Amino acid sequence: MAHPVIGWEQEKPVPDHHIFNDYLNVRDGRLYFEDLDLAQLFVGGRQDQGLMKTLPSPLEIIYLPKIRQKIERMRRIFADVSAEIGYAGRFHYAYASKANAAEEVMRTTLGAGAHHEMSGTVDVEIARLMIAAGRLTPEQMVICNGFKAAGTDYADNIVRLRREHDNVIPVVEALGELPPLIDSGLRFEVGLRQKSYGPHRDLAEMDAYNCRFGMDVDTLWKAAEAVAAAPNLSLKLYHAMVGSQIVSEADFLTWLTPPIEIYAQLRQQYPGLSIFDFGGGVPAPMTLDFTFDYHGFVRRLLTTLQAVCARYDVPVPDVMGEFGRYTATEHGAHLFKVVTVKENRSKLPWYIIDGSIMTSFPDSWALSEHFIVLPLNHLDKPFRRVQLGGMTCDSDDVYPPKPSHSPLYLPVETDDLYIGFFGIGAYQEMLGGVRGSKHCALPEAVELIVDRDSDGRYQFEILPGQSSNDVLRNLGYKKPLPELTGVDDYAKAR
Questions:
Q1: Is 484 a residue whose pLDDT tops 60?
Q2: CATH superfamily, with its number, for domain 24-64+331-492
Q3: pTM for the whole thing?
Q4: Could you tell me which of 11, 146, 200, 372 has the fewest CB atoms within 10 Å of its CB?
């Protein structure tokens, strides 16, 4: 039976210089994230790479160069395919901030030139902070998705943001979202969202699909007419998101073709419409067996746009994608120490880590999602099949997920054994609650933000984790207690 490949699947040691994927590789029995020796973060290394200290476990890694690589790779693919087929439109890369709205992620995506896609009122404040810091420039678009009914803080804040930034594009979900924009008197280029989410083969299936996002075809045309009639609005963008983490290029384009038809029909009547936004859905590798032909997908998308637009005798549009999971997944990792091993008459031994699986990666518990798990050291030792358990008193704090058939192998040698979960940079921390109180009141781990300068040298920034008193304050216990010696050392890393 096929299963997601989440790690090494043999009892023999991992060969030296083995490459797991484009950023994880083995050298001298240790796991490297590109060129960064991960084991050195805990046990030191043969050559210090600039950190000058060891850190406590558990530890969250934020590897910012990976974000830039992902953005540049997708831009290069669109540029190459456009040149191959003579596509006349431009490509706009937008980062979907809901995947990970941390400051270091936002400054990195914006610094790489990505446009900013948002979904709620706090996102507006993030955009304002980025504008004030000079990171969100006048040339970068702010795409305002999400529900923004009249009278909501989000609707009001979008209008305020427009006074500070010309390039704000509200994407209308319903006719009732237009009055605040019209009444503002401000010039707005707007987008319209099609009710297109979910699998469908044709327009009728798409329009009948049960989805709370976007407008059906009739309402969409009414919205376009209302925009055209408003003295201060113009139609700029058409938004059609058909799914999330779509791993079949053929299915992706099958579902996008009906929206492309609607775009071309709208473009015939509204010549200011110029951006086809296919939304999210471009997948990211979260396991070692992941395959997706990004180049093939882009070729299918652009050739379909060419063919449909030629049939309707309209120019091809600029193309926008909203890349959340694709952008942020691989830059994040969470590292733990194996603190004990329990045989417990189990079929497989239990390796217990010094943190929680279900609170650190909620999707593993809630959606039975798989992530890559590899040891940071002892890769040159024999392996055995195991099951992982977290520190919470919860039967679901286990890995692999309970319904999974994926085997997990880790070294037999468990003295000072450290392991890492990889591909967890999108959604997991946001769902788990940044700086919030976790299940069983486990404190949040120290974070290590990793970047590289222009010469390739590593740069490190350490963010302290939570202390016991931080957790108590979150839970409403006002009076702090003296911290126990050793218990909160992880929270004091600087």
A1: no
A2: Lyase, Ornithine Decarboxylase; Chain A, domain 1 (2.40.37.10)
A3: 0.92
A4: 11
